[in-house]
Amino acid sequence: VRVDSVDFYYLSMPEITLDVDGSQDALLVRITAGGYVGWGECEASPLVSIAAFVTPPSHGACQPVSASVLHQQLDSPADISRISALVQRNSMDLLQAPHTYSGIDMALWDVLGKARGVPVWKLLGYSCSYPKTPYASLLFGETPDETFIRVRTEVAKGFRAVKLGWAGFGEGTVKRDDDQLAAARDAIGTDGILLVDAGQIWREDVGAAADRLESLDRHQVTWIEEPFLPDAYSAYSALARQSSRVRVAGGESSHNARMAINLMRYGDIGFVQIDCGRIGGLGEAKQVADYAVSAGVTYVNHTFTSNLALSASLQPFAGLENHSLCEYPAEPKRLARDISPSTIRIDPDGCVRAPDSPGLGVEVDLDALVQYMVPVELRVGGHDILKASLTV
Ligand SMILES: [Mg+2]
Questions:
Q1: Residue 317 DSSP symbol
Q2: What pTM did the predictor assign?
Q3: What distance in angstroms lies between residue 269's CA and the mean position of ligand 1's atoms?
Q4: ∠ CA 348-193-142 to the nearest 5 degrees?
């Protein structure tokens, strides 16, 4: 089949706050190819990502993403790799291209899986899909008491693992952070898995991060995530060498496989976290997973939005039995929940699994999304380059 059309749906909650909650808006991608329909989701500013698809070319290495995708042959995983390489070549000066292509890539795999009647993880080379232990991703509360209640709420829902982050962690005193960690550990109990996301707060300041290691270790934190800017490899490596039990995690900001591989190779991280809506899709993410296996690093998905994005994020490591933690969006906005009527539920055994149904195994309910749709019109030089009323 060939890629017949690529449509974008810019969706938004009625109000966008400055909370670090990426589920407040969304950019859905629908691809049609030979009668099949595939879906994907970009993790990015929707308008900028749409623009990267339709922008007029600036020169040969700064073409719109559409130039490398529309009307391409799509019959095998090799075709998707070829399209991905074309985008990297033709849009090398277009920095938003990986974000835009990520959602497209998911939709291409979804189409191919549906056409062959197999789940995407099989197309990626796995023979089975292993259960993952989901962790609830939360922001720290304003106070330790608030943090305690937030963690308890998730534990009551059945979560055995919780990640806390942002909301001032790392900005104040070591004592303030220690009080927060104590409340979190108290709430989850001695057997629970506790993870911490520093959200790049220390930039390249290894000392500031190292000052927290004793506290993180005492509260049995499994990993400290994104302590530094995403490409501060020597800082990552220096912290990893000072830490005994607490591992360093990172990689969600990667825009291609090489960025994530560099973080493993030169940053000595113990967990690599990949967002398939940013890294350029599932093929790039699978390259990271393959390298992680060879390097003894544990692969984890990064996902904060819909079940569509969650399914996509599970595919690249579905077949890795020992890579068993999984980020699970615990409290996404209703927009993210409304994207798909089917949900990836937590099974009675407390685990989640990549769907067994063809493609990504998640259907999109456009009727439910009309209320969130943001019409977009782009006009350049007196001509419409995009006029999407985005009605169903
Ligand atoms: Mg993070």
A1: G
A2: 0.96
A3: 14
A4: 110
